[in-house]
Design brief:
Layout lengths: L1 E2 L2 E6 L2 E6 L10 H15 L6 E6 L3 E3 L4 H10 L2 H19 L5 E5 L2 E3 L3 H6 L2 E5 L3 E3 L2 H4 L7 H8 L2 H10 L3 E2 H6 L5 E3 L1 H16 L3 H14 L4 H18 L3 H10 L15
Parallel strand pairs: 3-4, 4-6, 5-7, 6-8, 7-9, 8-11
Antiparallel strand pairs: 1-2, 2-3, 9-10
Helix pairs in contact: 1-3, 2-3, 10-11
The chain binds acetyl coenzyme *A (ACO).
């Protein structure tokens, strides 16, 4: 199904969502941001969606914020319009950060500035070696806002983050993987196969445990050890209220049935 600025289809448990303004290198306009929130809403609790992949049509993943529609035209309408546009973009990135389903950024091409927001929101990120990443804000005269500075400081070492933000030099997918901005980079021709392979691994896992795990990884980062220890006990107990049988079945298949080894793969879900 194609809907203007965002395209998506669902195949074998995977929702393939795509920025769909290839002629504008998938830069994010207010229209795209509003549409993306609607699409995320629509897909989040569908039973036929187990994993969401975010990629871009054409040569770009996303060339960041739309300098014309998001900045110039919005600013011309005044502060209210600016704050509204910020809420809409930050809003869907936040929704994606805490999305019910596991998410993978499949970075097929250009990824600039504001694109780092949704990049960070996705739980995993796999890039084409040919993709290009850049904090280009400095090249047109602003600081990397919309969370982009926080993204690089969270993900990559300080010296690399500083160099990246101050020079505005683009790096390729291989370098992005070396810096840990993404999990790994593969040749563009293999990108979809590799992402599908990872998505299939996720589809085999207990979905309640996956949601608890991805939230825990993001939450504990800013906690003391004691707070994290406590949070994790409570998060597991909360997860048990949604699915108290899965983990018991996982133990049963290993200990009693001896049909799988948790060290080597997932238990078979009913
Ligand atoms: N905002 C608005 N329009 C854009 C953007 C953008 N971020 N990126 C591309 N476009 C438009 C171009 O203006 C052009 O429009 P036109 O056909 O009406 O002239 C069209 O998309 C195609 O762009 P080209 O520059 O011709 O594409 P090319 O493949 O040669 O280059 C590249 C791609 C390198 C991504 C280039 O478009 C670019 O530098 N874009 C801006 C990247 C950027 O700095 N984004 C902002 C980051 S900062 C932030 O997000 C807060």
């Amino acid at each position: 199904m194609t809907t203007d600025t965002v395209a998506f289809d669902v195949v074998d448990g995977i929702a393939w969502v795509r920025f769909n303004r290839p002629e504008k290198r998938n830069c994010m306009s207010p229209t795209l941001n509003r549409r993306m929130m609607e699409v995320l809403d629509e897909l989040e609790f569908r039973d036929d969606v187990g994993v969401l992949v975010l990629s871009g049509e054409g040569t770009a993943w996303s060339a960041g914020m739309d300098l014309k529609e998001y900045f110039r035209e919005t600013e011309a309408k005044g502060l209210g319009a600016t704050r509204q546009a910020q809420r809409e973009s930050y809003g869907w990135w936040r929704r994606l950060r805490w999305y019910q389903k596991p998410t993978i950024a499949m970075v097929n091409g250009w990824c600039f500035g504001g694109g780092y927001g949704p990049l960070y929101s996705c739980d995993l990120a796999i890039a084409a070696e040919e993709a290009k990443f850049g904090l280009s804000e400095i090249n047109w005269g602003i600081l990397p806002g919309g969370g982009a500075t926080k993204v690089v400081v969270d993900l990559i070492p300080m010296r690399d983050a500083m160099y990246h933000a101050m020079t505005g030099e683009a790096i390729d997918g291989k370098k992005a993987a070396e810096w840990r901005l993404v999990n790994e980079a593969v040749p563009l021709a293999q990108l979809k196969d590799r992402v599908t392979e990872i998505a299939k691994v996720l589809l085999e896992k207990n979905p309640v445990a996956l949601k608890a795990t991805k939230d825990a990884v993001r939450r504990v980062k800013e906690m003391t050890y004691d707070n994290a220890e406590d949070y994790l006990v409570r998060a597991q107990e909360a997860a048990n209220s949604y699915d108290n049988d899965g983990r018991k079945e996982g133990i049963r298949q290993f200990i009693d049935e001896k049909s799988y080894k948790p060290g080597l793969g997932a238990y078979k879900r009913g």
